[in-house]
Amino acid sequence: xxxxxxxGARLWYDVHGEGEPLLLHHGYTASRVNWMPVAERLxxxxxxILMECRGTGQSExxxxxxTLEQYARDVVGMLDHLGLDRVSFAGHxxxxxxxxxxxxxxxxxxxxxxxxxxxxxEGVGEITPELREQRLxxxxxxxxxxxxxxxxLMQFREDVETEEWFxxxxxxxxxxxxxxxxxxxxxMRDLDVAHRLPEITTPTLMIAGGVDSLLIPNLNDYMxxxxxxxxxxxxxxxxxxxxxxxxxxxxxxxxMVHGPVTAATLMARLAAAED
Length: 275
Prior knowledge:
Blueprint: E1 2-6, E2 9-16, E3 21-25, H1 36-42, E4 47-51, H2 68-82, E5 87-92, H3 94-105, E6 110-116, H4 129-140, H5 144-153, H6 163-175, H7 178-190, E7 204-209, H8 215-224, E8 228-233, H9 240-243, H10 245-258, H11 263-274
Helix pairs in contact: 1-10, 2-3, 5-6
C-alpha cells in the first residue's frame, strides 16, 4: 500500500496481482473493505488497484473537493500517477456515480465500466430535513448503537452480515470526514446524467442486488445504456460484493473476457450472418 499526491490530496491506494489493470472504487461511507472479498478472488487474474477517495478510509481529510466530479478527476489523477493510459473501472454505489462521470467526461481513459449497485444516474432521492439532522446528530455524538440498530433491522444474510461486520460499517460511517459526509451526499443528490447515458459507448456491466432498494433505478439506468450487460443477484442487497463475492468476481471476469453480451448483440450477429 502507498500514498499519492493527487489534485492536492494525499490519497491511499494499493495494487495487487499482475495483468490487465482493474481499478475498484468504493461507495459513499465505505472504503476498500467493501471490495476486498472480490479483490482477493480477482487478483490472480488481474492487476487490482484499490483506492480510497478523499475524506474516507486512510486518505486525507481535505478541506474541500467533495463532489463526484472531483472524485472522478482524482481517479484520472491516480491513473496518471500509476502511468496508466486506460483502465477498466469498477465502482460500487457512489463509485458507480463516479463511473458514470468517467465514462461521460473521461471516456478515453476507460477500457470497460463496471457499475455495482450504482447510485441512480438521476441522483439519489432527497431525505427529509428531520432525517438529515438525525444522521448528522448521530455522527456528532458518535452514536454507534443508533447506526447498528438500523443495520441489524435490515439483516438478511447472517452468514456474512455478522455483528463484527455491522460494527465495522458503523465505524466507517463515523470516520469519514464531515466534508465528505455532507457535501458528498449533496453531490450524489445533485447528480443528473440519466439523459446522457445513451452517450456511453464504453463496454459496461451493470451488477444489481435483487434485495437492494436501488434495483429498480439500476434496471432503469441499464435500459438507457447502449453497450451493456446485466447481472442481477437474487441474494444480494446493496453490499453486493460482500453478499455474493464468488458470483460478483465471476461476473466481472466473464465480462472482462467476453464483453457485453445481450439479446441485441446476438441478434446483430445473426443479422450479419444472413446478409
